[in-house]
Amino acid sequence: MSSGRLRAIYPHLGFVLVYLLWGGNLASLKIGGREWDSLVFNGLRFASMIPILWVYTYFYYRSRSLRFQIAGRDLLLICGLGILNAVGMEALLQYALQFSNAANGAVLGRGFMPVITVLIAVMARQVKITWRILIGIPLALGSVILIVSGGAEGFHLGSETFRGDILLLMRSFMGAIYLIGMNRLVVKYPLPILISLEMTAGALSLLPFVLLRADGAYFAAISQTGWISLIYTSLLATAVGFSLHNWSLAKLGPFKASAYGYLLPVTAALGGFIFLGESISLSQYLGGVGVLAAMFFVQRDRTSSVRRAPVPAPTATTLTK
Fold first, then answer.
1. Both ends of the chain: CA-CA distance in Å?
2. Range of the domain at 274
3. DSSP summary character for residue 271
4. What does the buried/exposed string (b/e) look like for 245-270 if buried means 16 or more CB atoms within 10 Å of the residue's CB?
5. Residue 24 exposed, middle or buried by CB count within 10 Å (0-12, 13-18, 19+)
6. Of 321, 319, 316, residue with least CA distance to 65
7. Residue 151 belongs to some domain of the structure
8. Is residue 178 part of a domain?
9. For the chain, which residues score pLDDT lower than 70?
């Protein structure tokens, strides 16, 4: 295999690693959720990364003689995406699941995101519908439903979950907006500054919840396991996961990036098996095979990548046009 073809595989491997980390993170969140308030947990998760990210960003820029410069509208966009991620996606998911169930969350909160992304991209004339997409997306969505179906808490729609299901669909819509918005930025600016700004905006948006719900006695009651859960989620799932996700996003575009989200139910089942001792049913095995087959169809499609105008590379002195 040539070096060029090998480099072309790296973003795909990047997304696989991201969803392995995020699948394991669902098990970590479940463990940590036994002790932590969800908003406090996520507020600390984002805030704990800020010093590390900004120190790394400082030395990244210094070693390359770059200036901390970003266009005003792009600054507003990345801060808006940070708040959207922290509040509109993470917090909304937690709230929506109070009125629905985890299976509906996997299908409606995540599974519809590639569908919404491709619809937006088609309307913006950024992507063309091909036979691979027409096969791959429905196959992936059906496979996710197969994975999460079965049992009392399997995927189902009804009046008792209607409120939560609508909120979950809103979460998928926000996820599509996040991908498309971030896709505009990752081709213009280095990842360290984008991740640092995004996490800072997200942490500030969650700070009021931390201040209102946590005090010294609250933190003293958290066990060692609870703190390990927070560290895993902060370092691996957040810092490494988001950095690798957005690097791969810059290479593949928002549609193919969103399609990899269908791996999450597969890696979540694997994480539950390894860390929580949960069993994997035959339907989950079959659904996992279906997801992998769908990924093959979508990622092999050469015409589904978003067409973007060439962007001049940043110079040594500025990051704006």
1. 37
2. 12-299
3. H
4. bbbbbbbbbbbbbbbbbbbbbbbbbb
5. buried
6. 316
7. yes
8. yes
9. 1-4, 6, 94, 97-98, 100-112, 121-122, 124-127, 144-145, 147-157, 255, 268-269, 271-272, 275-285, 288, 291, 295-321
d(CA 88, CA 280): 31
Instruction: Return d(Cα 85, Cα 87) in angstroms, integer.
Output: 6
What single DSSP character describes residue 228? H
Considering only CA atoms, which of 218, 213, 217, 230 is closest in space to residue 39? Answer: 213
Identify the pLDDT of residue 245: 85
Contacts of 22 by beta carbon, 8 Å cutoff, 6+ apart: 237, 241, 264, 267
Q: Specify whether the CB–CB gap between 262 and 144 falls below 8 A.
A: yes
Number of compact structural domains in the chain: 1
305 within a domain of the structure (yes/no): no
In which residue are the tokens 């629905």 written?
Answer: 100
Residue 215 structure tokens: 């005090």
| Structure token digits, residue 95 | 């709230």
Q: Which helix (H) or strand (E) holds 196?
A: helix 191-213
| 103, 155 contact by CB (below 8 A) | yes
- Phi and psi, residue 156, nearest 5°: -160, 155
311 occurs within a structural domain: no
Distances (CA, A) of 17 to 20, 55, 109, 124: 5, 25, 21, 30
Long-range contacts, 226-230 (Cβ 8 Å, 24+): 226/31, 226/32, 226/34, 226/35, 226/36, 229/28, 229/29, 229/31, 229/32, 229/36, 230/32, 230/36, 230/41, 230/44, 230/45, 230/48
The conformation of residue 78, written as its DSSP 8-state character, comes to H
Kindly state the DSSP code that residue 279 receives in the 8-state scheme: -
Question: What is the identity of the amino acid at 157?
Answer: L
